[in-house]
Design brief:
The structure is a single chain. The protein is an alpha/beta fold. Helix content is 37%, strand content 17%. The strands form four sheets. Strands 3-2-1-4-5-7-11 form a seven-stranded parallel β-sheet, sandwiched between helices. The protein has a two-stranded parallel ribbon with strand order 6-13. It has a two-stranded parallel sheet with strand order 8-10. Helix 2 links the parallel strand 4 and strand 5. Helix 6 crosses helix 9. The radius of gyration is 19 Å and the shape is globular.
């Protein structure tokens, strides 16, 4: 398949481009800067609404991974960038697809399990109602921004992604230095649930969804075994062979990271991939121990 990808130079995008190319697909980056993105890269500027009307002609699918990193203190400016970078990019792609005579058959648009909010031990799948809070509002707007692409010949799928595990990037890469020094520990009570997926399984799942004809709407990209923060902490310590006896108080998270820390590090989301499993997808890493051992090597 010929696949156009936004966010192709980011943590997830790089891994996905590599997998698709290795599997015989033809991934092409949609980017603001051509340097490092390949000679076939498509230029755009979502903040200005700039994308050539014919830019997506001849593509079988579009995968939208564009968005400002949420792992920062949420000032008013940061919140605006987190929201607008996702909504503007998605709206521009959706308008372009919606206006085409022969659009791509598949539009896989980035999303996140943050849509469910802080839900304690409640078991959540794609049929669960949205939650409350900044992230839930952002994800709702992000998914809603695909509206202009809704037509009978385009399948739109929302990639509701959890914490993606790989030593080369994302949350795990930030955790590794203190854990390797023996300074890791549970966060707060440690009871909050964490929904995760190995990077290899994430890229496999996205490729799988390119071909899953009935997988429209939201699909949770998480492993089927969410774990408590305490269990995650013990598993990471075991994978590194290091102790994990220094807990981080909730007050330290709130003081150090503000609203972002409360919404991402202290919030609890017990999410399962009901629809992904229903398409016949099988995970290589179903347990946190196996995933962390593989990620750390």
């Amino acid at each position: 398949m010929r696949v156009a990808i936004t966010g192709a130079t980011g943590f997830l995008g790089r891994a996905l481009v590599a997998r698709l190319a290795a599997r015989g697909h033809a991934p092409v980056a949609i980017t603001r800067e051509r340097e490092g993105a390949g000679r076939d890269a498509i230029l755009w500027n979502p903040a200005r609404g700039e994308l050539h009307p014919d830019a997506l002609a001849g593509f079988d699918a579009v995968i939208n991974l564009a968005g400002e990193n949420i792992a920062q203190r949420w000032t008013d400016d940061a919140k605006r960038a987190i929201h607008d970078s996702r909504v503007q990019a998605t709206e521009l792609l959706a308008r372009t697809i919606g206006a085409m005579d022969r659009p791509p058959n598949v539009f896989l648009s980035g999303s996140a399990i943050g849509v469910y909010g802080d839900r304690g031990a409640e078991l959540l799948d794609e049929s669960s109602a949205p939650g409350r809070g900044f992230l839930a509002d952002v994800v709702g707007a992000w998914e809603g921004a695909t509206a202009a692409a809704k037509r009978g010949d385009v399948r739109i799928t929302f990639l509701r992604t959890g914490m993606v595990l790989d030593a080369g990037g994302g949350a795990l890469a930030k955790m590794l230095p203190p854990f390797r020094l023996g300074l890791g520990g549970r966060i707060g009570s440690g009871e909050q649930m964490m929904s995760w997926i190995a990077l290899d399984d994430w890229t496999r799942a996205v490729e799988h969804l390119l071909h899953a004809a009935h997988a429209d709407g939201p699909v949770n990209l998480v492993a089927p075994t969410p774990v408590s923060n305490t269990d995650f902490t013990h598993a990471l310590g075991a994978a590194l062979g290091r102790p994990t006896v220094i807990p981080i108080p909730e007050t330290a998270i709130r003081l150090g990271f503000g609203e972002m820390g409360e919404a991402t590090l202290l919030a609890s989301q017990r999410v399962v991939p009901t629809r992904l499993l229903g398409t016949g997808f099988s995970f290589e890493y179903e347990t946190i121990d196996a995933a962390l051992q593989a990620a750390i090597g």
